[in-house]
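Hi F.,

I've been meaning to write this up properly since the lab meeting, where we talked about keeping a consistent format for the predictions we share between groups. The idea is simple: the sequence comes first, exactly as it goes in, then the structure tokens exactly as they come out, then a line or two of notes. No screenshots and no reformatting. I'm using this chain as the first example so we have something concrete to point to.
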Amino acid sequence: MSRRDNFRALYFDPSSQNWLVEIDDMYLQSAVSYYGLNSIVPNYSRAAGIIKGRRVDTSEMSERQIKTLAESCRLLYGLLHQRYIVTEDGIRKLENKYRRKVYGVCPRVACKGRPLIPMGLTIEPRLGKVRRWCPQCHDIYDGGVDLDGAYFGSDLPIMFHKMNDIPIKFRPFSSFLKKYIDENGNEVPEIKQRLYRWGEYPAIK
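Output, unedited:
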């Protein structure tokens, strides 16, 4: 097990470790990678030292302080992951997981098993868990793992598909505004509107 794998094993839940790509050591050692994060992450200096492979003496720290430091390590690594995953190397590693359907597939029948892409709803930490986005129907699903959405960021799906030249099936905006009518002339309930839009029910009108 590499030092990077060992770090993920120590600081992240087993069910979420495979969601994170392996950050290159050179990236972790570069001071540029950490720019601006010292104002966001508590215990920044110690957390950065641990991530870079330095030994930090915790013998005189209380259990609460050690727990807080571990949380800082997770946060800092996650924010570095947000930056690394949109680099050329990061996108390549994410593509490998995408091809292997690590993040699952869209449950909609019309999407025919299209692999999902992880994403956050914001780049700010502690505002929501990671989600999964379908490039076929554009729906967003729960991630089902205990990872902050900021570790992936909100722009990742579009950047990933653009850099890998993977087509995204965009729907015309008018399809979101159209109201469907059933055979009795009644407007279809809102709960079924999306099913009509994506072809899972035949639209009557």
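Notes:
Strands lie at 117-119, 131-133, 140-142.
The first strand starts at residue 117 and ends at 119.

If this format works for you, I'll send the rest the same way.

G.
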